[in-house]
Amino acid sequence: MDPFEDTLRRLREAFSAGLTRPAEFRAEQLRGLGRFLQDNKQLLQDALAQDLHKSAFESELSEIAISQSEVTLALRNLRAWMKDQRAHKNLATQLDSAFIRKEPFGLVLIVAPWNYPLNLTLVPLVGALAAGNCVVLKPSEISTSVEKVLAEVLPRYLDQSSPNLGRIINQKQFQRLRALLGCGRVAIGGQSDESQRYIAPTVLVDVRETEPVMQEEIFGPILPIVNVRSLDEAIDFINRREKPLALYAFSNSSQVVKRVLARTSSGGFCGNDGFMHLTLASLPFGGVGASGMGRYHGKFSFDTFSHHRACLLRSPRMEKVNDLRYPPHSQRNLRVLLVAMEAHCCSCTLL
Prior knowledge:
By secondary structure, this protein is α/β, with parallel strands linked by helices. It is 39% helix and 15% strand. It has 11 helices and 12 strands. A 3-stranded antiparallel β-sheet has the order 1-2-12. A 3-stranded mixed β-sheet has the order 5-8-9, with no helix packed on it. The protein has a two-stranded parallel sheet with strand order 3-4. Strand 10, helix 9 (254-263) and strand 11 form a beta-alpha-beta unit. It is globular, with a radius of gyration of 25 Å. The protein starts with a helix and ends in a 10-residue tail after the last helix.
């Protein structure tokens, strides 16, 4: 049997058996993930330095600490997130029980990019585990050192019904990024070292909208600059393209920032910064349209990996009330039913 097919079969069987559904099991997986981060901080910092030349400061701030805080938040709120959520009712359903039940999807796949190889692997993993899923992890094939730690060390901390990791190794992304340096004109940087898979922070000017660097996600230390004549032209430029994962507006005028926010759409938005919104578990991180589906961080991760099942339980003793719905129909019965079903009645409560 194909090893991947066998792995998927075992994971599906584990989920079908109900292994991942109890809160205790989910909490134990999250605690294991937390121990992995605590026990292997230096190993992870070294791996991030090898892959991306990240300093210990940046690794702690943008990768390890954010992942650890997501674990802590999920453990603190797990049982509250798992509870059925009461739904508002109209007059016609006041004596019924209406609620939303958060059910795990089952088996989910998490594919991580290489620009934040730990953060963007573990933050979704926290939500998937908290929601009670079995998980297949696919770390980036470019950040090989981080991938090696995740593949060899992380499974020791988690139940083996839950994670499985795959490995693909190549230089495709480095070659793609180096090719983008030919767009426009290099104003700053431009140096590269293939043996280290390193590209210096680079600013490109005189870039045309039709060039490759403006047609695909960069995922690298390259900043292309396109000149425009006005704020309106900049907004039009953004709106002509697919909605971005994030949009950053920098200006000394708060009105300019607010105008960009009001007239554009993106997965996330940050005024006068390009990072700090990622540090808030209270804000969802995710795309819209072509920039992605789903939202991560805190409860948003839990909800992304949960099916919100609509539930309404009616008592058979109330069947007489349903006579209004059954033939023979009349205008009077219709008017009564329409009033009972109106949304503005949802706040009514019968004691």
